[in-house]
Amino acid sequence: MNKIEHPIQSLASLVKASIIASILAVIILLTVVLPAEYGIDPTGFGKAMGLTVMAENAEQAVKPTLGSCDERTLLREDTVKLTIPANSGLEYKFYLEKDAVLEYSWQTDGAMLYFDFHGEPQGDTTGYFKSYKEATADKGNGSKSVPFNGSHGWYWKNESGKPIEVSLKTKGNYQVIGLR
Questions:
Q1: Strands 130-137 and 150-158, sheet pairing
Q2: What is the full DSSP assignment across 36-97?
Q3: Which residue ranges of the chain lie beneath pLDDT 70?
Q4: Which of 174, 173, 172, 171 is closest to 93 using CA atoms?
Q5: d(CA 16, CA 117)
Q6: What are the pLDDT digits (tens) for 40-59?
Q7: What strands lie across the sheet with 88-96, from one edge to the other?
Q8: 173, 75 Cβ separation under 8 angstroms
Q9: Burial of 146 (0-12, 13-18, 19+ CB in 10 A)
Q10: Which helix (H) or strand (E) holds 15?
């Protein structure tokens, strides 16, 4: 039977290889990664190779954020099923711009829930919110033209000892924020 013998590296050669690998990693970081990803070009090599253009393109493709509307708030329809835990509450929200209309209908599995359909202005840090409708019911529907940019949605509170299922259907120009 043939026996395969693997060469055993000395500690000195492993340290030397680690140092060389670290130096190469720093060189690649300074000459390629920083210019291509962040537009930072300390050596000028990235600009000479055209890598800084990649960072400029990445800046132009800014990911959408809440707060400004354009194609992110296209007309859409969604259905979501939520479970409101026993003796607890939760909020489900959407981002809408001023005068956008949210059509909605929701219903429970038959149990009554306290709800507050409300909106919070974008950027407000005072805790202010505008309540559109507040009651205790097992369903609701309608449409709402919102008075300001911001998050809008429902707070449901389950005061029973059992979880309650809610099915929420929405339609409009909005962005889903989801559970809060």
A1: unpaired
A2: III---SSSHHHHTT-HHHHHHHHHSPPP-TT--SGGG-EEEEEEEEEE-TTEEEEEEEEE-
A3: 1, 57-73
A4: 174
A5: 66
A6: 888 888 888 887 777 776 55
A7: 130-137, 113-121, 150-158, 88-96, 175-179
A8: yes
A9: buried
A10: helix 11-28
Q: Are 76 and 171 in contact (CB under 8 A)?
A: yes
Question: How far apart, in whole angstroms, are the C-alpha atoms of residue 161 and residue 86?
Answer: 5
Give residue 37's pLDDT. 82
The per-residue pLDDT for 59 is 55
* Rounded Cα distance, 60 and 53, in Å: 11
Pairing status of strand 164-173 against strand 75-84: antiparallel
Residue indicated by tokens 């493709």: 61
Q: Can you read off the two tokens belonging to residue 6?
A: 């693997």
Question: Which pLDDT does position 21 carry in this prediction?
Answer: 95
Which residue reads 């409708």 in tokens?
133
